[in-house]
Amino acid sequence: MDEQEIRTLIERWADAVHTGNLAGVLADHSADVLMFDVPPPYEGLRGLAAYERTWPGFFEWQAQGATFEIVSLDVTAGADVAFAVALLKCGMPDETAERRLRLTIGLRKLDGRWTITHEHHSFPLEEIPAPVGESAVRELLDDWSVQTAGKDLDAMMAGIAPDIVSYEHAGPLQYVGRSAVREVCQAGLDTSGSIELTQSDLTVLARNDLAVAWGIDHVTVESPDGPTESRSRATRIFRHGPNGWQLVHQHLSFPR
Q1: In what residue span(s) does the SnoaL-like domain sit (predicted)?
Q2: What's the helix, strand, coil split of the chain in %, to 5?
Q3: Are residues 184 and 236 in the same domain?
Q4: CB within 10 Å: which end of the chain, N or C, has fewer?
Q5: What phi and psi, each to the nearest 5 degrees, are found at residue 45?
Q6: 232-238: long-range contacts at Cβ-Cβ below 8 A with a sequence spacing of 24 or more?
């Protein structure tokens, strides 16, 4: 019963936001409400008066055609304390296909009724911090070394984008698409002995959803006639998407 009461309260609040009904937005909030909003200040806004001042500007922006709509809502209630988490469409129509506003609400039961005492609104950080991207690409390259040694072609392909363009050591001039690159990798793994791939002098730079890595590939193939070693130059471009970091271009060459 409490959870349904809270759900109705939050849905009523969201509808008031969508229609620009300030009185409805303020209803069911405590006098000492604390909100962490998308814009600063970082310490948040405390008190109903400060909370109220944030909405007129939002309503003006929303009147230009923006949407404010609950997509999912989960409520957990105790005897006198509760919280809710929600995802909302918040933005212009061309922004809300994938983008979601994250909302956490804290409530207390005061004088017998549920009251909002805390709101936290945020959007995910769309830019990937450079150290995070660079670390992820290095990890992907390390995984390829392990997968090469294990001759696990399927695992290797997971890190390669469907639209990859690869300049390989041998012709043709370019290999386009995952299937073409898979054939090249399969040929390289088709050896009776063990194979080892490592990189040295590796540099990785990442900016948001693109990363470039360059270094020297070392390949050692063990055969009945003994080991064969080669070193080549490698430049690789990665893109971050729904499937994580994937290789979209590589350029391999031997010096002449």
Answers
A1: 6-125, 137-255
A2: 30, 45, 25
A3: yes
A4: C
A5: -120, 125
A6: 232/169, 234/199, 236/141, 236/212, 237/210, 237/211, 237/212, 238/137, 238/140, 238/206, 238/210, 238/211, 238/212, 238/213
Mean pLDDT for all residues in the chain: 94
Domain final position from 122, 150, 165: 122
At which of 80, 101, 122 does a domain end? 122
Q: Is cis: bond before 56, omega within 30 of 0?
A: no
- Whichever domain contains 161, its CATH number is 3.10.450.50
CA angle 77, 80, 84 (to 5 degrees): 35
Residue by residue, DSSP assigns 61-107 as HHTTT-EEEEEEEEEEE-SSEEEEEEEEEEE-TTTTTT--EEEEEEE
Return phi, psi of residue 56, to 5°: -55, -45
Mean pLDDT of the 80-108 span: 92
From 38, 24, 33, 21, select the one nearest 90 (Cα to Cα): 38
H helix or E strand, kind and range, residue 176: strand 175-176
> Looking at the 3D structure of the chain, how many domains does it have?
2
* CB-count exposure of residue 230 (10 Å: 0-12, 13-18, 19+): exposed
Do both 101 and 149 map to the same domain? no
Task: Give the list of residues 6+ apart from residue 67 with CB closer than 8 angstroms, or none.
Answer: 18, 89, 90, 91, 92, 93, 96
Give me the sheet containing 45-46, strands edge to edge.
45-46, 29-36, 113-122, 101-110, 81-91, 67-77
pTM score, two decimals? 0.62
Give 105's pLDDT tier (boundaries 50, 70, 90): very high
Give every CB contact of residue 8 below 8 A, 6+ residues apart in sequence.
none
